[in-house]
Design brief:
binds adenosine-5'-triphosphate, single chain, mainly alpha, binds L-tryptophanamide, about 325 residues, 3-stranded parallel β-sheet, globular
């Protein structure tokens, strides 16, 4: 039986991933790659929709790839590649732009948020077209399943609409993908502001745990995490969001139920909980960080792995692109 095709990606928008990326994306991807024909991309074309420093982008792309691999994405079992290495992404995105309504694209909430945040002068046509490029990523591979966070649901719905529209207008070409929303329990919040999602692009780094930071720094951030004055180690998202967040991270990384943690820490202070959590986080990330360093110490080997995977991705993508070019009526070059 052939495995179901799966596609997901992440932007190389920072030197290091944060623990939310690890728990919300890399861990589920790692288990999905065993049962699916998985494609995971580092979406550098998307990363330039906001201003990027070229040297940093190149460096962050390699570093992101190394973190995927060190966290358990197996470049032999899944297709792990850099988006710009496969020209078909930009080529299909252009075609999709021509069947996307201006109003439809204007309704994307990520665009509305980001353009408000960056201001009119920094809002580019590229940022506006972000979702059609994402649709191209997904549709090129005849993807059935797209695991993403809730914030990306609207983009996958647009992708479905565009696929159905193209199929209706030009004949059956694309598989209509399903969205798989990552579990809400896997949403990690900022340690200093447990009501907002932890994010690579957070303004302050005080509440962000980076995969690649020194374990002493991680420990300090956890010990300083915002909690409450109630004192009880109880999971209550509504009234005790800080403690609930610490328990979530602990439970996922230690592979223990929240209940067993509540039992273990009952009657003890938050200090003990934080110490225990710091132990679990650093013992998870120490070996990953060491492996990332090994991979980065041999950039030629890392680049070779990415090239092999990109060649496979291009083969699949070019087949879809050729059909699209034919269906829309482009003359074949001789
Ligand atoms: P940026 O700030 O650059 O948007 P980000 O850290 O918010 O970055 P993305 O690159 O947008 O992360 O997302 C990559 C993947 O990580 C997505 O699948 C997303 O759902 C997941 N992810 C990001 N942050 C969290 C979080 N705090 N909790 C759970 N999952 C997360
Ligand atoms: N926009 C996504 C990253 C992304 C993606 C994709 C996810 C780009 N292309 C294709 C799934 C499928 C994000 O910001 N998390």
């Amino acid at each position: 039986m052939t495995k179901t095709r799966l596609y997901s990606g992440m932007q190389p928008s920072a030197e290091s991933l944060q623990i939310g990326n690890y728990i919300g994306a890399l861990l589920p991807w790692k288990s999905l790659q065993q049962t699916h024909d998985a494609f995971f991309s580092i979406v550098d074309l998307h990363a330039i929709t906001v201003a990027q420093d070229p040297t940093a982008l190149r460096e962050n792309t390699r570093r992101t790839a190394a973190q995927y691999i060190a966290a358990g994405i197996d470049p032999a079992a899944s297709t792990l590649y850099v988006q710009s290495h496969v020209a078909a992404h930009a080529q299909l995105a252009w075609v999709l732009n021509t069947i996307t309504g201006y109003g439809e694209a204007s309704r994307m909430t990520q665009f509305k948020d980001k353009s408000a945040r960056h201001g009119a002068d920094a809002t580019t046509v590229g940022l506006f077209a972000y979702p059609t490029l994402m649709a191209a990523d997904i549709l090129l591979y005849q993807t059935s399943l797209v695991p993403v966070g809730e914030d990306q649901r609207q983009h996958v719905e647009l992708t479905r609409d565009l696929a159905a529209r193209f199929n209706a207008r030009f004949g059956d070409t694309f598989t209509i993908p399903e969205v798989a929303i990552q579990k809400e329990t896997a949403k990690i919040y900022d340690l200093q502001n447990p009501l907002s999602k932890m994010s690579k692009s957070a303004e302050s780094h005080a509440g962000v745990i980076w995969l690649l930071e020194d374990s002493a720094v991680t420990r300090k951030k956890i010990m300083r995490a915002v909690t409450d004055t109630d004192g009880g180690v109880v999971f209550d998202r509504e009234n005790k969001p800080g403690v609930a967040n610490l328990l979530t991270i602990y439970s996922v990384l230690a592979e223990r139920s929240v209940q067993s943690l509540e039992d273990e820490y009952a009657g003890r202070g938050y200090g003990d909980l934080k110490k225990g959590l710091a132990e679990v986080v650093t013992s998870t990330f120490d070996p990953i960080r060491a492996r990332v360093q090994e991979l980065l110490d041999d950039p030629a080997e890392l680049d070779r792995l990415l090239a092999v995977n990109a060649a496979h991705a291009a083969e699949v993508a070019n087949e879809t692109l050729a059909t699209v070019y034919d269906r829309v009526g482009f003359l074949q070059p001789r």
